[in-house]
């Protein structure tokens, strides 16, 4: 399953780079956007498509920002090609162009490109894309062609400055896949069963010497996506698997510990995950069954338990082939509305209402869902502005 899915995504020739936006006032004066990476291929230019998030959570297309060229319309599910900065001094959306290795910074207030930057000559992602993660000082990019992690300094005006890249590799020679940062720690997956953490207190990542295979790895199960709790105590890994599998590692020591495996349902694949802002729910994208699973999470113990699963989302198989990354409407509670990238030609964005109370939950697709993303024939990555607080 691993080879078939990745090869198919790698070979597809579609998608633009998209970012979704909104003029809706969120939390007072904050603009509210949904962000998509359309990842479009030549001869089309890569764009960021902006959607307005309405008061009811529904999306309305706002427009496009042309960033550069070109993408690949495919790649790793766990490598998120959109990241967002929301600080006192900067409101920016960054997205990556796989073939050229460029990372563009878009100024949220003007919806214009503030700057574009590349790393070294090796830093490209034509094979499986370029994932992004950031804090207020540095942006990190996972370049899949030569399995490097690039460090970029954040500059005013949503610009970036290349600092350095490092070579990384899984225990079975796998290339960099999922990546997330929290405080001074970066946690990555390699798509070959192995995981590793790095210290980023000095900017450029330094390995913590804890590279290991996950407990549940082997055969058709291996970690792909990764998220970290708000207090930095636990790292959660969404597995590529024939069912819904998530693994949890205690990282309170500053290093990875052996993962605990949680079977959470029959949805096929768990290659994108996202914690709710209040950390009571873990949203899981069942990439190959057209569903979304929500598992209950105890942030004090790191334990997961079965929750609920959506029905098969509208248009699955007929209009689109895979669910991919997710984003949330709100930055508090369960997020209220969940958005999911739907990989197709053209692609779309599913809109799912979340309800949860007393260990019961429900995921229901809205009547007007999905919203079309005609700029992307292979949507894998979306984000939200303002982002989740952690």
Description of the structure:
This protein has 390 residues and is mainly beta. The protein has a single domain (2-275), classed as YVTN repeat-like/Quinoprotein amine dehydrogenase (Methylamine Dehydrogenase, Chain H), CATH 2.130.10. It has one helix spanning 2-11, and strands at 24-26, 30-37, 46-53, 59-68, 82-86, 91-97, 102-107, 112-117, 130-134, 138-143, 148-155, 159-167, 179-182, 185-189, 194-199, 206-207, 212-213, 222-228, 234-240, 244-250, 260-265, 272-275, 281-286, 291-298, 303-309, 320-328, 337-344, 347-357, 360-365, 371-373, 381-385. The strands form 7 sheets. Strands 1, 2, 3, 4 and 31 form a 5-stranded antiparallel beta sheet that branches. Strands 13, 14, 15, 16 and 17 form a 5-stranded antiparallel beta sheet that branches. Strands 26, 27, 28, 29 and 30 form a 5-stranded antiparallel beta sheet that branches.
CATH class placement: Mainly Beta
Query: Might you state the CATH topology name?
Result: Methylamine Dehydrogenase, Chain H
Give me the count of strands: 31
- Classified in CATH, the superfamily is YVTN repeat-like/Quinoprotein amine dehydrogenase
Overall pLDDT level: 91
User: Could you tell me how far the N terminus lies from the C terminus, measured between alpha carbons in angstroms?
Assistant: 33 Å
How many domains comprise the coordinates? 1
- Architecture, according to CATH? 7 Propeller
What is the SS-derived class? mainly beta
Helix content: under 10%
| SS summary, helix count | 1
Output the radius of gyration. Answer: 18 Å
């Amino acid at each position: 399953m691993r080879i078939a899915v990745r090869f198919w995504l790698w070979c597809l020739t579609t998608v633009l780079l998209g970012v979704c936006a909104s003029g809706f006032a969120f939390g007072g004066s904050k603009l509210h956007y949904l962000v998509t990476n359309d990842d479009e291929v030549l001869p089309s230019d890569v764009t960021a498509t902006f959607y307005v998030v309405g008061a009811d959570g529904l999306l309305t297309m706002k427009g496009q920002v042309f960033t550069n060229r070109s993408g690949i319309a495919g790649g790793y599910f766990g490598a998120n090609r959109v990241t967002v900065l929301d600080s006192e001094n900067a409101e920016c959306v960054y997205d990556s162009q796989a073939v050229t290795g460029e990372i563009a910074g878009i100024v949220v207030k003007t919806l214009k490109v503030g700057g574009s930057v590349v790393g070294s000559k090796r830093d490209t992602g034509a094979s499986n894309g370029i994932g992004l993660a950031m804090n207020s000082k540095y942006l990190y990019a996972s370049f899949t062609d030569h399995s490097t992690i690039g460090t970029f300094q954040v500059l005013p005006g949503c610009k970036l400055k290349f600092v350095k890249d490092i070579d990384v590799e899984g225990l079975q020679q796998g290339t960099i896949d999922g990546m997330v940062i929290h405080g001074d720690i970066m946690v990555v997956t390699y798509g070959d069963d192995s995981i590793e953490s790095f210290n980023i207190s000095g900017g450029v990542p330094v390995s913590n010497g804890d590279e290991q295979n996950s407990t549940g790895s082997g055969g058709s199960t291996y970690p792909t996506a990764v998220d970290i709790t708000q207090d930095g105590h636990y790292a959660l890994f969404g597995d590529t698997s024939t069912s819904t599998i998530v693994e949890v590692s205690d990282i309170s020591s500053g290093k990875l510990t052996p993962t605990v495996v949680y079977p959470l349902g029959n949805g096929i694949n768990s290659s994108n995950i996202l914690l709710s802002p209040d950390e009571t729910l873990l949203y899981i994208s069942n990439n190959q069954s057209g569903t979304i699973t929500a598992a209950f999470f105890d942030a004090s113990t790191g334990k997961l338990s079965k929750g609920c699963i959506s029905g098969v989302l509208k248009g699955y198989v007929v209009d689109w082939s895979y669910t991919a990354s997710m984003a949330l409407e709100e930055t508090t509670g369960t997020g209220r509305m969940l958005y999911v990238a739907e990989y197709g030609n053209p692609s779309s964005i599913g809109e799912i209402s979340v309800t949860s109370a007393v260990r019961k939950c429900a995921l229901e697709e809205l009547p007007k869902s999905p919203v079309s993303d005609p700029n992307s024939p292979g949507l894998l990555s979306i984000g939200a502005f303002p982002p989740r607080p952690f």
